[in-house]
Amino acid sequence: MENNRRIGIGYDIHPLVKGRKLVIGGVEIPSKKGLDGWSDADVLSHAIIDALLGAAALGDIGQHFPAGEAQYKNISSLTLLKTTSDELKENGWQIANIDATIVAEEPELSVFIERMRQNLSQTLGIEVKRVSVKASTSARLGFIGRGEGIAAQAIALIAGE
Predict the structure, then answer these.
(1) CATH number of 85's domain
(2) How far, CA to CA in Å, does 85 sit from each of 5, 52, 124?
């Protein structure tokens, strides 16, 4: 990788609702509620997409994959992440690493973290050791603490151009 490096940050949050699957990092997690959104509402993948796009100064997830467009209805966010990764490569960028945190009161996510890392690394075409995923709670405070939603934040380092 070249000396030209850039950092991007991404954040996403979705409400939890009945009648939807809970998908985070491309992993379907057993839960009575899922995240509401136009796509599969995978907050982790969405935060990473925004971090990557931001690092490359290529806009944001809403510009690339607008809600309301039929082609994105219920689409896997890993598909959107792959498209984003391909666009970065086309623009001369390589992904050096991703560091992300999911914030959820429940369900317990620790047993799913390794599968999330594997899914993300395969989708991005990078080694799993370059993808960090952590989970935290909001100590029962606020929207997330009341179990009304889940958030994620991500930082991406890219190199090239």
Answers:
(1) 3.30.1330.50
(2) 16, 8, 6
